[in-house]
Amino acid sequence: MLKIADRTYHSRLLLGTGKYPSFEVQKKAVEVSQAEILTFAVRRMNIFSAEQPNFLEQLDLTNYTLLPNTAGAKTAEEAVRIAKLAKASGLCDMIKVEVIGDQRTLLPDPIETLKASEKLLAEGFIVLPYTSDDVVLAKRLENLGVHAIMPGASPIGSGKGLVNPLNLKFIVEQSEIPVIVDAGIGSPKDAAYAMELGADAVLLNTAVSGARDPVKMAEAMKLAIDAGRLGFEAGRIEEKEYATASSPTIGMMTL
Amino acid sequence: MAYLGGEKGMSITVNGKQVELFESVQQLLAHYSLENRIVVVEVNRDIVMKENYATTRLSHGDVVEIVHFVGGG
Description:
Chain A is an alpha/beta fold. Chain A has helices spanning 23-33, 76-87, 110-122, 135-144, 165-174, 188-196, 206-209, 214-234; strands at residues 2-4, 7-9, 13-16, 37-44, 65-68, 94-97, 100-102, 107-108, 126-131, 150-151, 180-182, 201-204. In chain A, strands 5-4-3-12-11 form a 5-stranded parallel β-sheet. At the A-B interface, strand 4 and helix 2 of A face strand 5 of B.
């Protein structure tokens, strides 16, 4: 079970809701992914054509925890404002702190992320910061009291997978709060790898929504995450440089 | 009376666009058929909670943001 603050979840896949080809595909993908936590962004409503459908309004919200993000924020202040807007909906008190510091790579601003997390904790939010894979930053955020840490595997939407598995492993080893590998996942092997390193969960979006068949990929990710988690719990064998025979070396008949 | 714009030339800014002035947040939302939608309203950067929609008066020049949840990662 994944435990974030006082909540528990069966699923270790957190799914983003952006950029699906259609609501129908998205609904099916969400369903087969078995995700229980869905991320959203907060944006201006087009009030002049308000009749356009909204995905969130079509969900049975009793089945999901909403994890709004503060995407679009470049400062702690902006992130706090977005977080408060999200919470005022009365639908959620969890927030993915996302403060981007560089537009080309969309990498997070560690200092603003830290400041925003501190303010939002003081406001009573359940705080899940999206961070770079910096081991010391992860520790500093944990010491503030954040409820999970979400280091990126590689830049958002890049699909490059785990570019620094060693750092992710260090973060997993030191953390007493859940570690959710967020951003950069490209394929099921990346998700499985993150889980094998001991991550508590994976958050992904484009890897599913941008796949040729998002519904099938949603299922593949679910299976990969389950497999990776089982593998981690089972404890993998040590790597060796040379072969070790699997069959007995004694009792061999004369050939 | 809900609609206070027009001849008096009074307006507010909603989501970056100038529109006629309405008496309250509730009237504004009703005009755009948003009463039953999942939205959050800010007036001059202060969040207006649902229970205060009817009592929150709008005045000429107010800046209103009406936001909602959209797909995102």
